[in-house]
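> @MW can you paste both from yesterday?
MW: sure, first one:
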Amino acid sequence: MIERYSRPEMARIWSEEGKLDRWLQVEIAVCEAWGEQGAIPKEAVERIRHARYDMAAVNRYLAETHHDVTAFLRSVADSLGEESRYVHLGLTSNDVIDTAQGLQIKAAAEILERDVAALLEVLERRAVEFKDTLTMGRTHGVHAEPTSFGLKLAAWVDEMRRNAHRLADAKAQAAVGKVSGAVGTHATVPPEVEERTCAHLGLAMEPVSSQIVHRDRHAQFVATLAIIAASLERFATEIRSLQRTEILEAEEPFAKGQTGSSAMPHKRNPEKCERVCGLARVIRGHTVTALENVALWHERDISNSAPERIILPDSCLLLDYMLDMFTWIMNGLQVYPQRMRENLEMTQGVTFSQRVMLALIEKGLSRQEAYAIVQRNALQAWKERRPFRQLLDAEPDVTSRLSPAELDDIFDYSYYLRHVDTSFRRVGLLT
């Protein structure tokens, strides 16, 4: 379904072989735990450690049983002798399915953690690179006051660090197993076997399971992936906006030989960023399904099973791809400081309006009086395309209170960078 967006390591985890490999890993771990309890002879446990399954046989048996776990167990039994009677001892299917899925989630989350770390490294480096690069800050899409391009990226750094913490917590909550038998009572498999099995597999244990690991855990995991995807969408949307012809302050990489349009050879479209934004919507949609999987009938039903075969692999595969793609974008992001400066000057200096207003207030005017004077001149500058400073030099209400030297100080772009270092220190990008 999403092969185009699959990277090999993540794809292997969620492949059919990746799933059955972990089923077998769980079955063997349970037998080892039973062996430590003295319930399975040591020599039988040793032979079970070498058990195998055959995918063709599993598929053949599945056509007959219509039950994937029983088909799998028949294939495993084919690789053993009489000791096969100990495999799946006291278990229900979800002891294997959910515990193995916990292993898949853990492995997938570890890849995503590496992806996040790689993106953070690039974001941190580029934030420092553009720490003092002036650019126009925009609110509602309209010029507001100058800011630093590096400050934008420093905020992304901090957001991705929060995402790293969220992902670590979601992994801990979802990398969970259960080996408690039918409806979770431990009637056929003692708690000690569950404890030993989960410890051996490196998983946390569901303290009180039903017949399943509770699905609020999976909902948190998918929601966390959706939050990370939403952050990437936010960053990519900013680049898309900055790449518009009318702004053109930054561009995603454009490779040699790449084409942007079948009809218009001049086109350089932000299609990679658009791809990131579009895929974020898919993961966000999976969050709804994950939340609806939380409510199941009594100790379990199977309504969560089919959706999870889509939403868990898709979410992990897509986010892995998106993180890798956006790291590539940021690593090669083209930034145009000269164009940023041109855009700063586009509005005739009206972005200094707040500083002028505050200076007039300091000279004794009320806020309302100062606001009216500044707004009148700013709107005139904007409408007539005349320099704001020129209009202020001819405004008696201003010149009677502010000297030319004071106005020079007000119209100084460096003023807006004076606390940037403090923000960078706060996020550990400066010492």
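MW: second:
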Amino acid sequence: MTRWIFVLIVMAVVVQRVFEVRLSNRNVAQILERGGKEESDNALPLVKLLQICWWISMIAEVWWFDRPFIPWLAAVGILGAIAGQVLRYFSMRALGWRWTLPIMTLPSQPLVKNGVYAYLRHPNWLGVVIEIAALPLIHNAYLTAIFFSIANGVLMYKRIQLEEAVLHASVEQAAI
């Protein structure tokens, strides 16, 4: 029974991501209409592949290896997944129509430094890191948690470097 509940939780995250892609696409269109520019796709094809493989891997590990449900580990996983979701939500809320998946710039707009961005430089990425590590633990899919945390860490490192470079160039250009 717990495996089916776990599958439903994973499917809820999949549905959430579909809505996020739609929201991002809508926000990209708004930014472009306001004279913004897409600086980079931010490795989105790799991100999508990683996400899809992560979802499949979680479910496959639980079913194929008959992972037992461990209540204390599930509690840790649920709390971590919720923490990741909360960080991501507050990030999207602070950015509003400026929240996108690709890296976008809009010369007339200053960097967002309110909300969760007053405390963290990359709250959305931190939320993703926590979620990728925690969600599989809800049903003891620890191999998925380990492997995809490492893969995501490598990808995040590259994405954050690129994002920082674009933001730095954008701030310098605005100062000129």
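> thanks! The mean pLDDT is 93.
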